[in-house]
Amino acid sequence: MDTVPDILKVSILGRESIHCGFHLIPYIAHTVLTTLPASVYVLVTDTNVAQFYLSAFEKAFSAEISKLSSAKPRFLSRVIFPGETTKSREGKADIEDFLLLERCTRDTVILALGGGVIGDLVGFVAATFMRGVRFVQIPTTLLAMVDSSVGGKTAIDTPAGKNLIGAFWQPEYIFIDAAFLESLPEREFSNGMAEVVKTAAIWDETEFTSLESNAQLIYNAIRTPSTGNAGRHISTRSTSQSLLLSVIRGSIYVKSHIVTIDERETGLRNLVNFGHTIGHAIEAVLTPHMLHGECVSIGMIFEAEVSRAMGILKQVAVGRLVRCLRAYGLPVSLADQRVTRCPGARGLGVDRLLDIMRVDKKNSGPQKKVVILSSIGATYEQKATAVDDALIAKVLSEAVTVKVDLSTTSGIQHVKMATPGSKSISNRALVLAALAQGTCRLKNLLHSDDTQVMMAALQELKGASFAWEDGGETLVVTGGAGSLEVPTAGKEIYLGNAGTAARFLTTVCSLVSPSAAPDAGTATIITGNARMKQRPIGPLVDALRANGSEITYNESEGCLPLSIAPKGLQGGVIRLAASVSSQYVSSILLCAPYAREAVTLELVGGAVISQPYIDMTIAMMRTFGVLVTRDPGTDVYRIPQGTYVNPAQYAIESDASSATYPLAIAAITGTKCTLENIGSESLQGDARFAVDVLARMGCEVVQTANETTVTGPKRGELKAIGEVDMEPMTDAFLTACALAAVAQGGEGNTTRILGIANQRVKECNRIKAMIDQLAKFGVQTKELDDGLEVYGCPFNTLTRGASVHCYDDHRVAMAFSVLGTVVPDTIIEEKRCVEKTWPNWWDDLENKIGLKVGGIELPRAEGSNTATSGTPSPAASASVILIGMRGSGKSHIGKLASAALSRQFIDADIYFETKHNIGVREFVSVNGWPAFRAAETELLKEIIQKAGTGHVISMGGGIVETPQARDVLKDYAKTGPVVHVLRDIEEIVNYLGDETARPAYGEPITEVFKRREPWFIECANYDFVNHITVGDSEATNSEISRFFKHITGQPNLSENVAAGKRSYFVALTYPDVIPALRHMSDLTTGVDAVELRVDLLRAHNALGAIPSQAYVTAQLAALRRATSLPIIFTVRTISQGGAFPDNSERDAFELLALALRLGVEYIDVEISASERLITELAARKGFSQIIASWHDWSGKMKWNEDVVRSKYTLASRFGDIVKIVGKADTLQDNFVLHDFVAKANLQRGAKPIIAINMGVEGQMSRILNATLSPVTHPLLPSKAAPGQLSFAQIQKALNLLGQLPAKRYFLFGNPIAHSMSPTLHNTGFEVLGLPHTYELLETASVGEELKATLAAPDFGGASVTIPFKLDVIPLLDKLSPAAEAIGAVNTIIPVIEEGNRILYGDNTDWLGIRESIRSRAPSIGAPAAALVIGAGGTARAAIFALQSLGAQRIYLFNRTASKAQALVDAFPDAPVKLIETLDVWPAEGPAPTVIVSTVPASATTTDGTSPGAVLLPLALFDATANGVVVDMAYKPAETPLLTLAKSAAPKWARVMGVEVLLEQGYVQFETWTGRRCPKHVVSKSVLEKYFAAA
Ligand SMILES: NC(=O)c1ccc[n+]([C@@H]2O[C@H](COP(=O)([O-])OP(=O)(O)OC[C@H]3O[C@@H](n4cnc5c(N)ncnc54)[C@H](O)[C@@H]3O)[C@@H](O)[C@H]2O)c1
């Protein structure tokens, strides 16, 4: 064979059967055919893999077969559905039937080409077919390569669980072709990396270290296509490819080694289950939304934490594991957004997880077993270790409590410990030790991203070597004495987002010299992630360039990546601007001794920032043998030439802020604590805490140069110290507060802590946090301008069991755990927030300080119904920023949006004026525009920082004028919504007129508009069209509410797109939809969505077939004014049956992107389009949903052929909804379609599917299709597709097919003969084509007849009216909250709950009242005052309605005051006030703007002619504003109240009782049928009948 590749072989069970390499397809065909002779070869794969590789296999086999001289064997292939659901009994039978049909015999060889699903399934088929045939594994996912293909385990799933039926069956060969990974989705690659990292973690530290530092390089191998079979031979293999292959081989090697020793899984093989005990439990809850490897990744961290809590594994190792898994894109905690967004995430309770773990195969009896790591690369035992449930529970729980035993007063306990190393000192020590000569043992190094990438980089530059001792506690650095070499060509040094590393290494890399190696590069390249590529490095590069270094920016000016030529550092005078970061200064200082000339470093450009850090660098350089001098009184430093000398050992000083906690624990509990590595010589401000605070509080403090010992006074005897200035140690003030809470003495037990104002803008507002949380203990405080006062209490009087919220701030958590050591049962709610600086704090409390810590599971908050709930994710809670031209309506829309979202509104102009104490206009005239723009940009940053979530923010029109502000906006738009408010420029000009409140432009507005418009578009990710002046205010309000809810995660999607329900849409096939809008209510009868066929839109006089963006925007805006239904945005191409040109894909996608910007709910995307464009669009879809569609117009597509499966798979990948349209020639074609849909729906996580056949023969498929069936309407200009039926036609057909049984609905009451309800509902049923009926059931009482009606199987629901609204309640199973509150039921709905039919009572009367008020007078909003007349059941509904509208006061008038008082008592939370007369309004309140009368018309009078009736005075309409008057009396149409309103308050809206009846009836109709009531037709026929009878 001419293409013999270079192969790495691994042996398993004594045979070298695993062959690894790149581009192996011809090799596989050759090897299989020549070494495994057979009469037939069957390759089984799935549709995803087939599209990439099947034809290459077919070709290779046919080429090899043609070379055979003997009888030619057959080569067959079988393509099946991808995904776990295929790994089933049915899936196995399907392949077996295929083999039998093809008359395969015992000498068959089966090849499994695919991921683990294919390998497991096909392996099992091979194990049992003809009692076992030979098979070959060709894994195509990383998981399959390193795990599932190796070991011979095969299996299928059953409904009872995964992998329950299977066999051990070893493949003849396993061919690992790493080139397959290039087509694998990255998420699947990461999924496999979890296994790779796991294997290294239990077995091989060297391999783990390589994984830690090479993530970027490994990804390069799969991201860069290896064209021309690159990599097949070692000579053409890239560094990345070699590394990838070696990683895969390493992992396989371990697995095959373990399998060889322990084939049938007894003890050793359990080790590969590291992370799986907990990971499997998580997977069981989250599947199929999270992948196996992702769950195992989280499981590994939890299990490592179990080992750490047992005192076996060091935090260093846990930290390395976390960072390594993260580097491969894997989640490491349950707080990861990928987890919290899963629908099942709420089920991740500790008890649930433990319960699932009970059935793990590894358990011995009730004891759970976990693989315990002892260090990276080694396990504690050669098998899984038994662990107590309590320990696992503690690790899993999110909150903790420090257990206190106040009865112990035993002698002084002495704790000696070191606290985590200081981050700044760790970073410096690492560079110094690496640049020095000799070996240094670094102790107490803080492991962080910075230290990790720094070590990797220094190794890459051959500048030093590193080794770990003491399980990672000590880092042994062998320094290179400043010799550094340029790395291999093409190898970049990747720094992630590690800022300190980037700054220090920039100068380090300038020290590099050329390398003698043949493949050495010409420059050192340092790069980072996207965030790093935005962080500034300019001043440092400028200084080095000026000194002669050759540094180029590879991408953007002023940021990484950098190319640094290996020229060495020149030295002499170096000038550096040091007002931005002291790290630039430290970077040069650290490297300066190695320059060719002694360095004089002059700091220029204003005040030097953070001098203490510069002093720290200089002090540490001295320890490593280089003495820096500073010219007195200047910022000039002189650094001599020299080589650092490594001290034998260097103990990194503890982080001084962390040190305050154990010392404070000694202080508060009356014990003794000695901290190593921190003492009087420390350069950190917080190191003074012991002397300046603890000693004054009564502790004995002994401090040596680098050790501190604190002995507390007897418990309860800490002294309050009056006042303390904590400016030099601000971070320690939280610890001081915790102690002050129990400190006594002085004036009022007061401790006044000052100098800490900056703590208001740390992780949270820490001053407020301490005040609020101390209050939970009963501790009083007072906030001061730059601090707070704490009034101490005896510790044993503090409230026990307080649950401390930590604001995700490590310092709050640790400070309150100090207080928790003397207040029993204190709960610290978010234990993980300590991870920022002291990840093993809770373990150290237990293992080093000797306290007991327990896990606590907090009750989970239930979802609330307020507008701000919905699907919370950070992006959903992100504040909305509005930008747009001045006068475009930002403030107005912003206020309405914030009301709709229940958020706070910020107007940047007002914010500006409050902040600067001067109006915008004056500011500009005093300081000029540039100063204003700069201040405005700062303001924008400040608002984002302080109000980045939960707000609606309106920015000034000119915010886009500077590039800086545009960058801030664009950056924000990556995760949060920036909305461009669009308004016609003519309208703006008219609106602004000669307004003077804001600074004048000084140029025509239209010019300003031209300049800014592109910037608005560039900065915003959404557009909102302001049509305030066009639409009526109800439509405008509802569109504002819809749009802003959409972009904040509460999209207006159809509830009927759900399993078990049916949904429909109507397609608007107009060139211009505007003339059709008046028919919209008819056109949309019954449907759930409206499709806008954008490809059919044509502006009058427009040329060409592509509608302009502006036209489409205007059409959509117009459509929104006419319907509140969700919109489907479709650009159908000609080849898919539409009118959009096929060769204009870009234009089509620009229109689709426009739809995203406009917040369209559903976007139809044709899967025949370019995959890249689809992927890009899908990545930006926000809260819109994608309908991924495929239409076959050829009529050749058959639903039972592979092509449909592959279209389906592709569409499922991109779409939230799949749409496949074929064509039927016979009725039979519809059955095949139906069968396909049924099977597809069986797959786990299956997407909703729209599947229909066109043509008259296909009508049946339209009837049976459940999701978004397209329907037509007689009013449409043309059917959107042949064979379309109307909504009503489909309902009738469904009824005939037995899919929609007729239901009977009733009105219960007495007397009801004249009720309008039958007309209302029966008209609705008829218009929608529903087979139901609505009848009157007039009975004397709630008796047997009524009970029998409720029990009948065809009972659909009932309305209930007087006098049964209360009496019917005992017959019902459950009441809605509204019915409970009102105390009456007017609607009965039979519902299925947990498999049982129950009767549910609701009350829609209040909704009728509320809707009547809202729709007639939307501007009223929350009325300042409202009046209810009467005190019966309807009055209750009225009060409930007004309360829900937010009425600030509700006057209640009734002739019998005692009855009214009962009503007031029934609504304790409502602002109801009894009034005794209607003639005057209470002095403190205004006259009402909403009046609801609930008494019969005959009981009211305007002239006193009816004795005993309520006299209605003119004073009712005293309010100056306009209002609404609702008379619930049903007859006559015009009651005395409405007549009076007509003359006394002609501008008020008047609502008749029958109108309220209609409104509540619409709601009933919709709850019963799941369909919107066709209001237009229904109201017409009800009102006609009502007035005819009147
Ligand atoms: N037998 C064992 O020892 C063992 C061990 C671990 C896991 N498993 C089993 O493995 C299965 C999971 O395997 P998996 O993660 O490989 O999932 P998978 O087989 O479902 O593959 C993942 C996805 O990637 C697609 N795909 C595969 N290769 C591709 C390629 N090269 N390019 C593009 N797409 C590609 C597949 O079609 C599929 O959609 C589970 O059923 C699990 O139980 C078995």
From TrEMBL:
7-phospho-2-dehydro-3-deoxy-D-arabino-heptonate binds at residues 131, 147, 153, 163, 195-198, 255, 269-273, 276, 292, 361. SUPFAM superfamilies: Aldolase, Aminoacid dehydrogenase-like, N-terminal domain, Dehydroquinate synthase-like, EPT/RTPC-like, NAD(P)-binding Rossmann-fold domains, P-loop containing nucleoside triphosphate hydrolases. Keywords: Amino-acid biosynthesis, Aromatic amino acid biosynthesis, ATP-binding, Cytoplasm, Kinase, Lyase, Metal-binding, Multifunctional enzyme, NADP, Nucleotide-binding, Oxidoreductase, Transferase, Zinc. GO terms for cellular component: cytoplasm. NAD(+) binds at residues 46-48, 84-87, 115-117, 120, 140-141, 162, 180-183, 191. Residues 1-389 are annotated as: 3-dehydroquinate synthase. Zn(2+) binds at residues 195, 276, 292. Pathway: Metabolic intermediate biosynthesis; chorismate biosynthesis; chorismate from D-erythrose 4-phosphate and phosphoenolpyruvate: step 5/7; Metabolic intermediate biosynthesis; chorismate biosynthesis; chorismate from D-erythrose 4-phosphate and phosphoenolpyruvate: step 2/7; Metabolic intermediate biosynthesis; chorismate biosynthesis; chorismate from D-erythrose 4-phosphate and phosphoenolpyruvate: step 6/7; Metabolic intermediate biosynthesis; chorismate biosynthesis; chorismate from D-erythrose 4-phosphate and phosphoenolpyruvate: step 4/7. It catalyses: 7-phospho-2-dehydro-3-deoxy-D-arabino-heptonate = 3-dehydroquinate + phosphate; shikimate + ATP = 3-phosphoshikimate + ADP + H(+); 3-dehydroquinate = 3-dehydroshikimate + H2O; shikimate + NADP(+) = 3-dehydroshikimate + NADPH + H(+). ATP binds at residues 884-891. GO terms for biological process: amino acid biosynthetic process; aromatic amino acid family biosynthetic process; chorismate biosynthetic process. In the N-terminal section; belongs to the shikimate kinase family. In the C-terminal section; belongs to the shikimate dehydrogenase family. This is Pentafunctional AROM polypeptide. The lineage of its organism: Eukaryota, Fungi, Dikarya, Basidiomycota, Agaricomycotina.
